[in-house]
């Protein structure tokens, strides 16, 4: 069926659903039944058929665009190369001729201002009112007009040349002069709903009482009948929205856009907002009168732009022009459609109301898989109690960056059921450290100790253990190690044999060539080196960028930065070292958490005066107390160098800070260092 809009109304350009009734309701035979009833009104035409345009004019038919007349002048009229001084007059003459063709008496018209004429469409009604306001551009090249009579509302525009500059100017000029029409019910010839329409609503579970209380009417256009939703403020008619059998909507032109049902929310603290009049009526059936509907549907998507100033927020003026009615509203329940445009509308409304004031609903399932899409569907498929439940169970509108624990329940469940992996930490491989220190992905461990205490050796041994037990791979940024020496140390730990048969190997058997070759493959597969090839010092950002690449490309689970003082510290002159360290550790922690990568960061203690050989304190780390403040774990590696105090190969692993009690606690454990292979063991007999 073809559908045409009358002159006095404008189609809704929103994404409002235009499905046919038969598609959108469970009463598939409804449309058919309505058609069968057509004889009641017009024997030969279907009831609710297309809506005719206004009665034929005495003027020749004009090609209509949705907003009125455009066609006459938009034909491709060749534009003169240039216009002479007196061209304005000639343009204006052409324009006047065009306007006369559509019945305007332009004798008194003056360019550059609004002129008031008798409307050729409605002839000014009984009072012969000069209701047509026509603005003619100062250069006489274009005109735009509107009839302010409620019953007419004819509007249009024309221009002398298709690409006339003055055209857009005159259109703009007309806009502010468009005053909102005051509707009179008697002019619109609204009628109470006929029994058939009441029946149609009752099939959608909307009662006659609800229809009457909400002023739902009907209107005849020649031989057509459509539903009329009356938009009122303080009881006065502000606008009308029409709906035909095909679920096509249009509105009275040049009327103020307001929420439907506005009077129902005056003084209410809870306000429900829906996306259509039917939903507003459905809410009433579920016991909620404090509900309003937006007047013109939903946008296709959320705007990526900043909110415009109020006066430029044209699409949402209906939200700004009811501040009084919304004065008491402290809770806005957004119950727009469940489809993407409906959700975009919710977001746009929430942006304007303030998300902290907003709630949202979840539409329940109507069948095995499909969700209800709006309030009327819930009413029809599940009944009023279900709709009531939907509103009562409205949840807080999400605010970016503000969460509740429910948002994380999946993750917390996985933590509880230990399916996340290594949440209590991965064992270091030394049983006597199990209660003290375990490796949790995404944490930062600071390792310190006096020079030569074995910090680097112990970390290397730890990495070998983690690789052996869990297959973890690592990125190494070890500035003090030559690559070949670092390879030797790691291979010795892996093969458990010395690299050379040198003095340090004592009488231990050297690793064989096969063991060495196998070891090389393991080395290559397990460690990724972050090094500045030009002898420059790496800065932390550079290191973390490469570590990120190692995570993404090779799946590394750990990063070693050894040591802090070998990084290139580009500390700005106005920044203290404390501030600098704080920022650097924030970067490292962010990297660790984001990539679930454990970071070991080696930092030296400052020069200790009066040092008597004991392990240093974490607060002794050179640079800043932030090392201990910001890390998740703090470990001091210390070894005995006094033969009289005990075995000199004994190493103390002093766990001085553990933030996560699941992963360990403060304490100390002793390990024994095997000088030949670089291995550490908890049992001195294994040396
Ligand atoms: N418990 C130990 N007994 C004997 N020698 C050890 C022990 N621990 C480490 N070493 C030796 O000390 C040397 C330095 O070890 P390592 O590089 O791990 O120390 P470090 O604390 O990292 O030193 P620096 O702070 O200078 O970087 C190595 O030659 C290593 O073999």
From TrEMBL:
One of its GO terms (biological process) is DNA replication. Residues 419-687 form the SF4 helicase domain. Residues 269-368 form the Toprim domain. CDD domains: TOPRIM_primases. GO terms for molecular function: 5'-3' DNA helicase activity; ATP binding; DNA helicase activity; hydrolase activity; single-stranded DNA binding. Its EC number is 3.6.4.12. Keywords: ATP-binding, Helicase, Hydrolase, Nucleotide-binding. It comes from the Eukaryota. SMART domains: TOPRIM (SM00493). It holds the Pfam family AAA_25. This is Putative DNA helicase. It comes from Medicago truncatula.
């Amino acid at each position: 069926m073809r559908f045409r809009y009358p002159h006095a109304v404008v189609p809704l350009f929103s994404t409002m659903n235009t499905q046919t009734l038969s598609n959108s309701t469970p009463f598939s035979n409804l449309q058919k039944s309505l058609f069968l009833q057509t004889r009641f009104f017009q024997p030969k035409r279907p009831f609710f058929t297309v809506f005719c345009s206004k009665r034929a004019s005495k003027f020749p038919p004009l090609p209509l665009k949705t907003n009125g007349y455009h066609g006459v002048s938009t034909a491709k009229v060749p534009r003169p190369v240039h216009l002479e001084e007196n061209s304005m007059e000639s343009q204006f003459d052409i324009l006047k001729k065009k306007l006369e063709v559509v019945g305007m008496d332009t004798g008194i018209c003056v360019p550059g201002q609004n002129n008031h004429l008798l409307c050729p469409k409605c002839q000014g009604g009984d009072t012969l009112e000069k209701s047509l306001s026509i603005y003619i551009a100062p250069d006489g090249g274009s005109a735009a007009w509107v009839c302010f009579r409620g019953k007419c509302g004819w509007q249009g525009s024309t221009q002398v040349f298709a690409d006339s500059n003055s055209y857009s100017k005159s259109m703009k000029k007309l806009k502010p002069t468009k005053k909102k029409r005051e509707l009179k019910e008697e002019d619109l010839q609204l009628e109470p709903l006929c029994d058939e329409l009441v029946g149609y609503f009752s099939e959608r579970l909307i009662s006659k009482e609800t229809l009457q209380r909400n002023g739902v009417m009907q209107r005849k256009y020649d031989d057509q009948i459509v539903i009329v939703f009356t938009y009122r403020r303080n009881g006065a008619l502000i606008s009308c929205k029409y709906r035909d059998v095909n679920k096509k909507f249009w509105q009275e032109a040049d009327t103020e856009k307001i929420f439907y049902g506005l009077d129902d929310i005056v003084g209410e603290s809870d306000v429900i907002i829906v996306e259509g009049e039917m939903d507003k009526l459905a809410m009433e059936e579920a016991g909620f009168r404090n509900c309003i509907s937006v007047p013109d549907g939903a946008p296709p998507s959320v705007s990526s732009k900043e909110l415009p100033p109020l006066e430029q927020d044209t699409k949402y003026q209906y939200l700004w022009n009811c501040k009084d009615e919304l004065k008491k509203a402290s809770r806005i329940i957004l119950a727009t459609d469940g489809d993407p445009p409906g959700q975009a509308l919710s977001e746009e409304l929430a942006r304007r109301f303030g998300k902290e004031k907003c709630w949202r609903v979840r539409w329940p399932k109507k069948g095995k898989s499909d969700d209800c899409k709006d309030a009327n569907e819930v009413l029809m498929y599940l009944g009023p109690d279900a709709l009531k439940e939907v509103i009562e169970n409205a949840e807080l509108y999400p605010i970016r960056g503000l969460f509740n624990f429910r948002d994380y329940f999946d993750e917390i469940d996985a933590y509880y059921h230990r399916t996340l992996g290594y949440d209590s930490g991965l064992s270091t491989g030394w049983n006597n450290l199990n209660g003290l220190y375990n490796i949790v992905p995404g944490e930062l461990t600071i390792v310190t100790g006096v020079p030569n205490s074995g910090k680097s050796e112990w970390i290397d041994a730890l990495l070998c253990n983690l690789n052996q037990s869990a297959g973890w791979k690592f990125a190494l940024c070890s500035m003090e190690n030559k690559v070949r020496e670092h390879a030797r140390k790691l291979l010795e730990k892996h093969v458990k044999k010395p690299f050379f048969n040198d003095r340090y190997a004592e009488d231990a058997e050297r690793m064989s060539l096969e063991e060495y070759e196998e070891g090389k493959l393991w080395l290559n597969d397990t460690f990724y080196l972050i090094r500045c090839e030009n002898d420059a010092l790496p800065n932390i950002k550079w290191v973390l960028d490469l570590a990120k690449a190692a995570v993404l490309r090779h799946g590394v689970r750990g990063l070693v930065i050894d040591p802090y003082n070998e990084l290139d510290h580009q500390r700005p002159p106005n920044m203290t070292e404390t501030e600098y360290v704080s920022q650097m550790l924030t970067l490292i922690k962010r990297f660790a958490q984001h990539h679930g990568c454990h970071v070991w960061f080696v930092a030296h203690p400052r020069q200790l005066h009066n040092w008597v050989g004991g392990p240093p304190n974490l607060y002794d780390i050179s640079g800043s107390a932030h090392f201990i403040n910001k890390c998740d774990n703090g470990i001091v590696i210390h070894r005995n160098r006094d033969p009289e105090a005990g075995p000199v190969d004994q190493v103390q692993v002093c766990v001085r800070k553990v933030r996560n009690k699941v992963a360990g606690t403060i304490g100390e454990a002793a390990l024994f260092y095997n000088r030949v292979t670089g291995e550490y063991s908890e049992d001195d007999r294994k040396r």
